[in-house]
Amino acid sequence: MATKSVLAQETTMTTHAINITKGGYCLESKTFQSLRPPATPPPPHQPLSITQFILSLLHSSAIPTTQKNFLIMPSTRQSLTYSEAINQIYSLSSSLKSLYNLNKNDVSFILCPPSLHVPIIYLSLLYLGVTISPANPLSSNSELTHQIQLSKPKIAFATSQTAHKLPSFPLGTILIDSPEFISLLTQISKRDCATNHVEVSQSDMAAILYSSGTTGRVKGVSLTHRNVIAPIAAFQKSSAELDPHAVSLLTLPLFHVFGFFLLINEFRWGKTLVLTERFDFEQVLKVVERYRVSDMPVSPTIILTLLKSDLTNKYDLSSLRRFSCGGAPLSKEVAEKFKRKFPQAEIMQGYGLTEAGAVSRIIGPEECNRHASVGRLCGNMEAKIVDPLTGEAFGPGKRGELWLRGPSIMKGYVGDEKATAETLDSEGWLKTGDLCFFDSEGFLYIVDRLKELIKYKAYQVPPVELEQLLLSNPEIADAAVIPYPDEEAGQIPMAYVVRKPGSNITEAQIMDSIAKQVAPYKKIRRVAFTDAVPRSPAGKILRRELINHALSGALCKL
Asked: Which residues form a coiled coil (predicted)?
């Protein structure tokens, strides 16, 4: 498929400087432009790896990081300073090149739970031009088989607990909890690494990250070094976020795009990152108190848990200042209740995709008041709102499918030319599948996934809207809404509800409550109670699992 070159895509964004509204909408091209200050990433033709780029930014910053902690692992009480981390990156990259004959563009499969070693492995491999392909250690054998078929790795990194899930690879599997691996981190000094320098092109593949698979089979998303370098160069932080004493707690998985980008970005700013092996709510509260955590990237699920749990009263959470929230829309009502409970903290919503990286975000206290929005477009990103039926591009205030273009858009899906052609058009536009709109000031709002809209008679019902109403009920801990087949209406909204402990709320009470708040066609017409709503590591509802569950029993008569 012939798509525009990276340089052509980046140049296109400057060709419509006239007829731009205050919200960034270009009347001539019918596109939305970023309102963030322009950023100039390194020239695309300059040889540069992600690791080289962020190391250069770190060295040129005024933030003293030599003896500052980069990573902290509370479960083991271990930590790694920036100085130690940089030395380990150089040592491991040199050791892998000389001992394992790893070459540029080889693929490395990584099946490891969070640890101090994983970020070092990522940055060392990227320094060598080796493509990293991290996967969920909890993946099933069939899921791993599919991912390995897509990525075709030469080598793997695993632990003694996860290695049994992997087949043999041409260059073997390295156990990162073995003495042999530890020696690779320290056996070569930085000054001995000069002879092992690898020239990496920004167009080389840097990572294969796996899409969540919430609407189909998991796909391998191919990201180049340029796809990561450009948004990192454009990424802005508010003055409060640049506090050199800020501490970030990363509860998101490092194999997910959110965790991966955050890891790279925090390293670039010289921040301290606290890693957790798994999400345990009370343990997270203890870690916040012990390490005076100021920043937490979270999913809406965690925001809801913080809001509704009485455990928060047991711990000193006064250090918390910022919650970067992504993965799914967060309602205005929930955000306002959260602000009342944690008045010292701001929720900064954002939106991103594995295929596009960071797309938009809220910056600063004033923008945080736009509770229902996921912010303004990040630098170097442009967007269109397109009617999915006619292809017509809409202006502010109208809903349609969000299309994106910019230097962070993926190269494509590995091993799936058909899916790539369906998602990327010939002009480099990525069709997100998300139903969205921009307001007149350039703030983006996510309505729902197009494929997840419930078709009730002639109407379209967004599940997210109903979920947000359900979650505003103090007796409901979590909820998900799915389409349920109906002979007369086609589909009806059905809710899966997790009651809060001690609650006896009934199906009738739930349906009556929602019916009072929505138009008749949006009413919930069936309720099932469950112990937990299945979600992806990023907090997205796995609706297919619920739909399969609903249709597998005696519930469905069609």
From this structure: none
